[in-house]
Protein 1
Amino acid sequence: MSLSELSTCTTILVGKNASYDGSTLIARNEDTGTAADPKKFVVVKPENQPHEYKAKMSQFSITLPDNPLRYTAIPNAVDKQGIWGEAGINSANVAMSATETITTNERILGADPLTKAGVGEEDLLTVTLPYIHSAREGVERVGEILKTHGTYESNGIIFSDANEIWYMETAGGHHWVAQRIPDDAYVVAPNQTGIQEVNFADSTNFMFADDLQTFVEENHLNLGDHFNFREIFGSHSQLDHHYNTPRAWYAQRYFNRAASQDKTPMSDDLPFITHADHKITIEDIKFVLSSHYQDTPYDPFALGATKETAPYRPIGINRTQELSVLQIRPNVPTERAAIQWVALSANPFNTLVPFFTNVNDTPASYRDTTAVVDSKNAYWANRLIAVLAADHFQAMISDVESYQEKTLGYGHQRVHEIDTANAQLSDAALTDALTTANEKTADHIMAQTSELLSEVIGTAGNLVPGTFTRDNY
């Protein structure tokens, strides 16, 4: 498997004034090259963080700083291709999601080639998240790594804390720009270079490689009269029109319908920074990152759908391995502010589960994912449901949607219950209590998921070819 096949994701970022409760929200589907690539949800304690790090899929290696922070991550259950930590929140309440694989163009790759000894998605969370205390520090750390080591791929990297969200895009082997997402805005990033106008005089909202302007000028890369990062560094290929832009189109259509009426799935001019017509909720993010163009002519699950009627890559795809919605909440003590909402396997058929991140460990059903199928693992139970339900979508979607509604409601209930029950705790006592509370949450969700799996197996068993009853004659 090539490096470029390993992750093809969709990202949603929601500023604190655009979210339902004042939280910063960053979310990303981790989509890989195969339908089954099992993931686990873990806590990495400082004593378990490597000091000398070496990648498995590239020639990248680095000596890491002392005194790492504790952090959560969703690495591969089988590490033969490396860690791939993907998404987590550290003990300073800084969240990171890495990475959104993006595209660039040939002239950029010629001027600043990718480097085999550079950092990549396999490495980025592990070598960054334990060492930062703000979203801005995350950009600064990755910028230094890119300057020293370069990268072997083009990626979007996301950081958030209680106040800010930063989206960082690499271009070529060593160049990059990062933009602070406005507090009242949201962003959808679908495997394309997204950042548009860069204001080099505005250090509050933009960061960039030291030599970015000089690099562009010396290599004659800017074909316009202003510095539009997407236009200079991005791509506008036929693949983009079928694989990337339709996802941004559908998401923007959902969040602000009136403003998107003149756009199509192939529109090249969809804005990067956008504003919703309502406050954005956890459920909104889950719906969009599970979507398959429902209520449009392009839904692959619609009755009679063919490759001709559904020519666009859905957002909710069978190759999704996990979704993390990383929430840093306001107006609660910092020790309880951070929640990682986790969904495993294909999003049209799974649910989001809230896990407090100030914990010593994660629930076994989410932590101990096996290399082979085991329905006691949250990943594999959801993968089995997805495989069966996708083949009998119309027959099973009612049961799936009922499960999703009940479990998401339970998730919000649990956040309220846990906040209330632990309002007087702090320090180690609170960490222990949140660890135990997460276990209870996971146990309930696993029981509900097992019930759905039983229903799905029963329905699918009655629909297989060769089914024969006395009614057949």
Protein 2
Amino acid sequence: MSQIVLELNHLSCGYDSHPIVQDLSLHLRAGDIGCLLGPSGCGKTTTLRSIAGFEPVTAGEIRLQGEVMSSPGQRVPPEQRRIGMVFQDYALFPHLTVAENIAFGISKHPERRRIVSELLELVNLDRLGKRYPHELSGGQQQRVALARALAPEPALLLLDEPFSNLDGDLRRRLSAEVRDILKTRGISALLVTHDQNEAFAVCDQVGVLRDGRLQQWDTPFNLYHEPATPFVASFIGQGYFIRGQLLTPDTVQTELGVLRGDRAYQLPPGSAVDVLLRPDDIVGQASSPLTATITGKVFLGATTLYRLQLPTGSTVETLFPSHDDHPLGEVLGISVAADHLVIFPAQGSVNVSAQLPLEQMLEEGDSD
């Protein structure tokens, strides 16, 4: 089993005696890339700054390679933690060349030139070592910041919203490149972001935070298919909750018919439940007696995401191949193909939207 590089044990921290992060526990294995994911103000950056040593902790502890870095009344200085940091604004020195920026943290290292040369090649900037930051693109500046953080060979690399200043296409390409670089070097890293696509593309383990509390620390696959809380289910991916009633430990009566899951749910029969349905759980079936009306659509390239209104007024979504085009207002036959059901005790209103991508990308004619 891989060595544990980072441990947060019942960590609480904040600013000016104001608690922000509470009772947070997780661990990161050597060579893994982790992520703290959540909406603005949930405590992601506060946690990262506490790990780096910039902020004290009020309870719990932070361990790096088994050694306590922070606990109440104890804090190892940031420069002694063997932690590299890539900031949101890159924080490059404008008066230093690319090579000099990378060498900044290893100025007394006897093999400084070799290390800088290797890192320039690693980040595909081997011909740009003599340039200055203002002569580089945003993506190139990000690579310089990454190389500079890697130069001292840190035990852990922290990245604070590292791609937020880049446009969408470059962001996607660079996030993949950064993952490859970190994996090539075997670097353990912890990333902070509010973008789940970025988190899933880069990271092995993702922690979803809400109001300073960790909801779930898991693989991207499990966060999507096995969400531990309704918040994780709603924050990760797309989908809608529909109300149902548990008939037996593995079957639920819903407005879409009786749905059978692949497990026994730990609720008494007769319980009101909310069933999460993802777009890939709803499939078109022309012969089905169950129908829904298309009220919105978003073209995604290979697929089209349709918002469907059921006869009861509830909403679900489905994905069709993009060449299978349907107009707004068309009535489709549908069925549910979801043996793996995600179910929670009923909360709030009957039809709670897990995410509303169509609210953000409405086409003209959408009825909502």
